[in-house]
Amino acid sequence: MRALMPEENPDADPEAQSVSGVRYASVLSGMHKIFPPQDLEQRNALSRSDGYWPYIQKGSDPPKQFTYGEFDVYFFAELLDTAYKIYFNKDDQKAQKDWQSKTFVDIGSGMGRLVLAAAALHPGWKTCRGVELLPGIHKAAQDNLESCRTTTGAQGDEASYTLDASNEETGQQESLALAPIQFTCGSFDDPYVYFGDADCVFVFSSCMSQGLMGSLSKSIGRQCKPGTIVITTEFMLTLEGRIEPVEEDLRVPSGSYKLELVEQIDGWVWLTGGTSTAFIHKVVESLWEDGVGALEPPTLSAEDMCYNAIKDLESGDYMANTESFLRGIYNNMSIHGLPVSWRPKLTNGGW
């Protein structure tokens, strides 16, 4: 079988620079060192380690949103520059200075590739963050960031990060400064996974279902402040809707939101067959509140935690073989003489 190998962007301009003055080609060179194109097959396999197998073991197809893919760096860089122009509706020195204080978030950040690229393209950004659902590739993202560590403070609690790259024009090695980077393992659908401070959000949504895009739209409408730029690929967000209350926590805001589709851009992405369409949105109305940051999850009683755990297990949503798992719990509880009323329900009894 032919190994996965990304193709080079035929439209790439080697002279192109970000609005922050960083060459696209240098960032791509740095990406190739951390994410060698010839190792894409291995990265793809890692993404399946904790996302695919529960579904495969049940004989069902994994959801398409678990598909690991790598977006073209040149097209990504162009989209960030377009976001800058839309955000300020102008292009001058004051806008470029203000751009340096912004926060970028990649939803579905995988192994951190685009977060690192964004931090290199715009090293003055306040923060570049990634949100990833799968623990295995989230851990890989943290490891990739650690590979960029260059120096530590005297106490060992401070570090600077750079991206090693090659300048094709001069033939010399260069170190690209990186904006501060953070990675979070969680779901964008979780109201306690915070990205409400984002000024620019990117989502490689080419494999997302219609239902997932609807959930993403509501999460954007719940968390992101008016003016935030949101870039999706292949599918646009739902521009208007209503977000229902979270019954278990009425602190989570509910109500209506409104987005605006500002621009639609085609670019080159090898993974989608050569052409990809990006949709650039702007948040018009949202449930964001000034001064209200991340919500801490409510503290549940032991009874509520046990009840929720049993509900999740019995639903079969989180385990590949829920019945076997529950049977083990049931038998252990029986051996230790715990009351029958405490034991999980089984289809075929305990043993």
Protein model, in words:
With 351 residues, the protein is of the alpha/beta class. The chain has 2 domains: 24-285, Vaccinia Virus protein VP39 (Rossmann fold), CATH 3.40.50.150; 302-342, no CATH class. The protein contains 10 helices and 11 strands. Strands 6-2-1-7-8-11-10-9 form an 8-stranded mixed sheet, with helices on both faces. The protein has a 3-stranded antiparallel sheet with strand order 3-4-5, with helices on one face. Strand 1, helix 6 and strand 2 (127-132) form a beta-alpha-beta unit. The chain is globular, with a radius of gyration of 23 Å. The two termini are 44 Å apart. The mean pLDDT is 84.
Sum this structure up briefly.
The protein is α/β, with parallel strands linked by helices and 351 residues long. It has helices at residues 24-34, 40-48, 53-57, 73-88, 93-99, 113-121, 135-146, 210-223, 302-315, 322-335, and strands at 103-107, 127-132, 149-152, 159-167, 172-177, 181-185, 200-203, 229-233, 240-243, 255-269, 274-285.
How many helix segments? 10
* Main β-sheet, spatial strand arrangement: 6-2-1-7-8-11-10-9
Low-confidence stretches: none
Which CATH architecture of the largest domain?
A: 3-Layer(aba) Sandwich
Main CATH class of the largest domain:
Alpha Beta
Helix content class: 25-40%
First and last CA, distance: 44 Å
Q: What's the overall average pLDDT, rounded?
A: 84
Q: Write the H/E string, N to C.
A: HHHHHEHEHEEEEEHEEEEHH
Pairing-aware structural class of the strands and helices? alpha/beta
- Approximately how much beta-strand content do the residues carry? 15-25%
Shape designation? globular
Q: In angstroms, what is the radius of gyration? A: 23 Å
Task: Using the coordinates shown, work out and report the CATH topology of the largest domain.
Answer: Rossmann fold
- CATH-assigned homologous superfamily of the largest domain: Vaccinia Virus protein VP39
How many separate structural domains? 2
